[in-house]
């Protein structure tokens, strides 16, 4: 494996002896290549991949609570996302593969945020939640999907970690699940499910929701989704990255002094409904408070409401869908 280490603007490559840089192999699925930051275990083959230029990814930093149907702790990181699934032919077992990755990440400057092994340690619904999007990643190897899910979700034969790397050009988050071979599930070799997110701002000029676009959206549809408003995980604290969108909201409201709007918070379906209803309303109220206190918008023109997961715009079965459902909307009163 190769882990890129970034220290005070310098770039070094740390090559860990147990793992080697994963050049493209003839047996790799076409169109796939190793992530440049974290590559492959020696001899493994790419069974599937998927890359997105910008996406919000939830990285578990705690076990799965089956009672609350939610992670006990997690971090959302937005940026370039790479998903890779490897098969590991040969004699290596799942624990050998997992420990090799763990050692390489630590040696490369990553900080381990969380690790767990199997149902009792991770939570019984852990693997099912993590592998929700594996069908998309393994689109070219559909026969492998059921074996992986059965071994992990059915038998609990997996190990998992989340780790982070601080670097000047943006934080990197890694989640890694190694599913061990299981004859009963038809999985004849370990499988590595790797997700890497390189934190970055969404490139400007790609999708711009400025004051004019907000005004047009409200005039046409009566509401508009504002994905530029971001919050800390499971919190109503507005992230600093949201200031640009808040400023455009205020600009629109100043330009249209008669307009009155609802600010509506939406969540995905992760967690308990009562909690999400309170959280979505608290987030909407935080936006209203920011518009009033920082931008001087009259409070009688704004009303906060939260609807949790009652009004999805995408399926909650995938991470991409859940990311679209987590949003703030401005709705004409």
TrEMBL record:
<protein>
    <recommendedName>
        <fullName>OmpA-like domain-containing protein</fullName>
    </recommendedName>
</protein>
<dbReference type="InterPro" id="IPR006665">
    <property type="entry name" value="OmpA-like"/>
</dbReference>
<dbReference type="InterPro" id="IPR050330">
    <property type="entry name" value="Bact_OuterMem_StrucFunc"/>
</dbReference>
<keyword id="KW-0472">Membrane</keyword>
<keyword id="KW-0998">Cell outer membrane</keyword>
<dbReference type="InterPro" id="IPR036737">
    <property type="entry name" value="OmpA-like_sf"/>
</dbReference>
<feature type="domain" description="OmpA-like">
    <location>
        <begin position="218"/>
        <end position="333"/>
    </location>
</feature>
<dbReference type="GO" id="GO:0009279">
    <property type="term" value="C:cell outer membrane"/>
</dbReference>
<dbReference type="Pfam" id="PF00691">
    <property type="entry name" value="OmpA"/>
</dbReference>
<dbReference type="InterPro" id="IPR006664">
    <property type="entry name" value="OMP_bac"/>
</dbReference>
């Amino acid at each position: 494996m190769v882990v890129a280490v970034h220290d005070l603007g310098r770039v070094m490559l740390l090559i860990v002896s147990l793992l080697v840089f994963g050049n493209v192999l003839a047996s790799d699925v076409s169109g796939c290549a190793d992530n440049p930051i974290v590559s492959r275990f020696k001899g493994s083959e790419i069974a599937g991949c998927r890359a997105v230029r910008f996406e919000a990814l939830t990285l578990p930093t705690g076990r799965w609570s089956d009672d609350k149907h939610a992670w006990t702790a997690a971090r959302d990181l937005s940026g370039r996302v790479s998903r890779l699934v490897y098969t590991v032919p040969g004699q290596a077992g799942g624990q050998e593969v997992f420990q090799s990755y763990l050692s390489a990440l630590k040696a490369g400057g990553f900080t381990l945020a969380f690790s767990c092994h199997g149902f009792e340690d991770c939570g019984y619904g852990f693997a099912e939640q993590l592998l929700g999007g594996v069908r998309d990643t393994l689109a070219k190897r559909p026969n492998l999907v059921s074996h992986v899910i059965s071994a992990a979700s059915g038998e609990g034969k997996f190990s998992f970690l989340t780790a982070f790397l601080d670097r000047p050009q943006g934080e990197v988050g890694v989640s890694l699940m190694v599913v061990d071979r299981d004859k009963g599930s038809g999985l004849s070799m370990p499988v590595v499910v790797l997700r890497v997110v390189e934190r970055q701002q969404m490139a400007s000029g790609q999708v711009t929701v400025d004051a004019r676009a907000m005004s047009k959206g409200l005039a046409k549809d009566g509401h508009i989704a504002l994905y530029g408003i971001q919050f800390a995980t499971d919190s109503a604290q507005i992230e600093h990255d949201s200031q640009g969108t808040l400023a455009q909201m205020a600009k629109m409201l100043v330009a249209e002094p008669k307009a009155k709007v609802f600010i509506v918070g939406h969540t995905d379906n992760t967690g308990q409904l009562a909690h999400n209803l309170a959280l979505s309303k608290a987030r909407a109220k935080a936006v209203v408070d920011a518009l009033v206190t920082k931008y001087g918008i009259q409070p009688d023109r704004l009303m906060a409401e939260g609807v949790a997961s009652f009004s999805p715009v995408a399926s909650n079965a995938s991470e991409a869908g859940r990311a679209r459902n987590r949003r703030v909307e401005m709705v004409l009163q």
